[in-house]
Specification:
The chain is of the alpha/beta class and 337 residues long. The chain contains 13 helices and 11 strands. A 6-stranded mixed β-sheet has the order 7-6-8-5-9-11, sandwiched between helices. It has a 5-stranded mixed β-sheet with strand order 2-1-3-10-4, sandwiched between helices. Bound molecules: alpha-D-glucopyranuronic acid.
C-alpha cells in the first residue's frame, strides 16, 4: 500500500514534468509557420525485450518522421493496464498499449475480442482486425469514456498453462484457479470451461503462480519467457481459446487537440508498425517456444473440440444481449475463410 502511494506520487510528478516539457507549435514572430511538433507519452506493461516494445519503437520512429515525438514508458512503470487506461482517460497520460481484454472493463463493446473462439484462425483474426468496419466502430465508440483506439497489434493466441498438469479437457480444469485478465468475458470463459477464474493484473501473475495462489494462467507463449512464467509453469496446453489484440489508445482530449497532419502521422505510424509487427510477432513466438523448452516447459497439442463446445453458450449470450453485439458478431464471422 505504502509503496503504491509513493509510486503514484512519483508517477504524477514524472507526468507533470513531462507535460511541462511538451513542445509547442504554431507560427514564429515573422508569421512563417514552423513545422508543428508535439510530444506524446506512451505506456505499456512489457519489457524492452518483448516484441511489442520493438513494434512500439517502430511506431515511435515513424511518428517522429511526421513531427510527432513519442516517448515510451515500458515495464508497467506508469502502472498496470487498468491504471494506465485511467491515466489516459483523465488525460494525464497521452497513450497506452493495452490488451483489448483490459478495455472491456471500461466499455462493453470490447467484450467481443475476449469471446473464446470468435476467431477461427490467425488469417481470420488478421482479416477482421485489418478490414472490419465493426472494429473501427468499436475503436471510435469510447470517446465519451475519454479515449479512442487508433491501431492494433497481434497479441497471438492464448492457451492455458499450469505448474505441471496437462489440461486436455474441461474436466481437467475442475477445481483449478486460473488467472484471467480483468475482463468479464474472460471470467465467464473459464467458468464455462469448468475452472475457477481469478482475475488479476499481469504483473502479479508470476508471484501468484510461484506461491500457489493460482494453479495456472492463460496467455501467449511470450509470457513463459519474457515474463518468466516458464520458471514456475512447466505444462502449456494448446487450448488456443482466444486471439486478443493489443490496442493502442489515445486520450480523447489529446487527440482532439492535434492537427489533422499530426493525427494522420500517428494513424500512419500505427498502421505501418502494426503491419511489420506481424512478422516480428511470428518470429518472437518461435523463439519463445524454443527458449521455453530450454526452461523445461512442455507444449501439449490437444483436441480443442470440448473447449469449443463448452464456450459455445457464450457466443449465444453475447449476441442475445443487444442488436449491436449481434451485428458485430455476424460481421466478424463474415471474414472467416
Ligand atoms: C498479453 C497482452 C498484455 C496483457 C497480458 C495479460 O501479453 O499483450 O497486454 O497484459 O497478455 O495476460 O494480462
Amino acid at each position: 500500500m505504502k509503496f503504491k502511494k509513493l509510486f503514484s506520487v512519483a508517477t504524477a510528478g514524472l507526468l507533470s514534468v513531462s507535460l511541462l516539457s511538451a513542445c509547442g507549435s504554431g507560427s514564429n514572430a515573422s508569421g512563417d509557420s514552423e513545422a508543428k511538433s508535439v510530444s506524446m507519452r506512451l505506456a505499456h506493461n512489457q519489457s524492452e525485450e518483448h516484441p511489442i516494445h520493438t513494434s512500439l519503437t517502430e511506431f515511435s520512429k515513424i511518428a517522429g518522421e511526421g513531427a510527432v515525438e513519442v516517448e515510451i514508458f515500458p515495464n508497467g512503470q506508469l502502472g498496470a493496464e487498468r491504471d494506465v487506461i485511467e491515466l489516459v482517460q483523465s488525460g494525464t497520460l497521452d497513450m497506452a498499449k493495452v490488451s483489448a481484454s483490459a478495455l472491456e472493463a471500461f466499455n462493453e463493446n470490447y467484450s467481443i475480442f475476449s469471446l473464446p473462439y470468435v476467431f477461427q484462425s490467425k488469417e481470420h483474426y488478421h482479416n477482421v482486425m485489418d478490414n472490419s468496419e465493426s472494429v473501427q466502430e468499436i475503436f471510435q465508440s469510447t470517446k465519451d469514456d475519454g479515449f479512442v483506439a487508433i491501431g492494433w497489434y497481434d497479441g497471438g493466441q492464448r492457451s492455458i498453462y499450469t505448474a505441471d498438469k496437462k489440461v486436455e479437457s474441461p474436466a481437467d480444469l475442475n477445481g483449478m484457479k486460473i488467472r484471467v485478465q480483468e475482463s468479464p468475458t474472460s471470467i465467464a470463459m473459464i467458468e464455462a470451461m469448468g475452472g475457477s477464474p481469478t482475475p488479476m493484473a499481469f504483473g502479479e501473475v508470476y508471484t501468484s503462480l510461484q506461491q500457489g495462489v493460482i494453479d495456472g494462467a492463460e496467455s501467449n507463449e511470450t509470457a513463459l519467457t519474457s515474463n518468466k512464467h516458464g520458471e514456475v509453469s512447466k505444462a502449456y496446453s494448446y487450448t488456443e481459446h482466444q486471439y486478443v489484440p493489443d490496442v493502442l489508445i489515445v486520450s480523447a482530449d489529446k487527440w482532439d487537440g492535434l492537427s489533422e497532419e499530426q493525427q494522420q502521422a500517428i494513424t500512419d505510424a500505427a498502421e505501418q508498425s502494426s503491419e511489420s509487427h506481424k512478422e516480428v510477432w511470428a518470429n518472437a513466438i518461435e523463439e519463445a517456444i524454443t527458449a521455453a523448452e530450454e526452461m523445461g516447459v512442455t507444449f501439449y497439442t490437444i483436441d480443442k473440440a470440448p473447449f469449443i463446445d463448452a464456450s459455445a453458450p457464450l457466443h449465444e449470450e453475447y449476441q442475445a444481449k443487444n442488436e449491436a453485439n449481434k451485428k458485430y458478431f455476424e460481421d466478424f464471422q463474415s471474414y472467416a475463410n
